[in-house]
Amino acid sequence: MMLLIPGFASAGSIFEHQNTNVPAGQTVNDVYVIGGDAEVFGKVTGAVVVINGSLHLGNTAHIKGVVVVIGGQVIQDPGAVVMDDVYDISLDNATQNSLLIGGGLVLGLWVLQLAGSLLMVLIPVLIRIIGRQKIGTFIDRYQGNAMGRLLYTGFLSGLIITAVSALLLITIIGIPILILVLLALIGAVAVGFTVLSYRIGEMVHVQAQRSEWINVLIGAAIITAFVNIPFVGWIVLLLVTLISFGIFTTWIAGKRKKNYSPAIKGE
């Protein structure tokens, strides 16, 4: 059933959820139709918007504003005048597939981001709980290390690792070694991230005494929150990775120095 706009609707705006007709000789400000078709034979001084329906502009139609049709078609008879732009967004199969694919990608990225955030919080806590004694000693060893020194050491280590990885990548034999190196780096970053999380969590002072894994949980949550900030998060993630490299490199250097010292004494 087509709704016919009466004469007293002149100079007003139309908001309808059904088929609508603006007859010849009538003037309205704007036409908004949702879930129905629209026919315009009169004059519209503003915009015409039709959602989930089609628009028919008769030969006497005169539209001064923009025309937007979503989910339908625009049929313009000869003589119809549209003084602004016409946007016809058809929800055909191709468009629907594109929207589904785009929505799926956005949802997938959000799920990956959520899963990554949970892992960034849970892995350091599990490392602290499972390796309680060893990680505790490891954390105590780096309480006094300056962040700037660890960052500088991590930066140099990152450059060396990148160069070595590039050399291994160009050889067939080096690819399995590169995989082992990457796995070792992931472990190093995880342990370094645990140490850094503990140090940050320890800075959050409360009156009650807390367990060490609680400090790790608080620190990891703070770092994860900053990592999820657009643009800034990438910088924070890079800094955390470099500091973790610095902690791991310092530990390796300390182990080598410790093993080298008895050898010198034995000579």
Shape label = elongated
Strand line-up of the largest beta sheet: 1-3-6-9-12
Rg calc = 33 Å
Structural class: alpha/beta
Write the element-wise H/E pattern from the N-terminal end onward: EEEEEEEEEEEEEEHHHHHH
Q: Helix segment count?
A: 6
| Helix share, percent | 55-70%
Structural domain tally: 2
- Distance separating the two termini: 104 Å
Biggest beta sheet attributes = 5 strands, parallel
Mean pLDDT: 80
Residue stretches low in confidence (pLDDT < 50, at least 5 long) are 5-10, 263-267
- The proportion of residues in beta strands is 15-25%
Number of strands: 14
Transmembrane segments: 107-130, 150-173, 179-201, 213-229, 235-254
Keywords: Membrane, Transmembrane, Transmembrane helix
Protein name: Polymer-forming cytoskeletal protein
Organism: Paenibacillus sepulcri
Which features does this protein show?
267 residues, alpha/beta, 2 domains, 5-stranded parallel beta sheet, 6 helices, disordered C terminus
Describe the protein.
There is one protein chain. The protein is of the alpha/beta class and 267 residues long. The chain has two domains: 89 residues, no CATH class; 160 residues, no CATH class. Strands 1-3-6-9-12 form a five-stranded parallel sheet, with no helix packed on it. Strands 2-5-8-11-14 form a five-stranded parallel sheet, with no helix packed on it. α3 packs across α6 and α4 crosses α5. It is elongated. This is Polymer-forming cytoskeletal protein. Keywords: Membrane, Transmembrane, Transmembrane helix. It comes from Paenibacillus sepulcri.
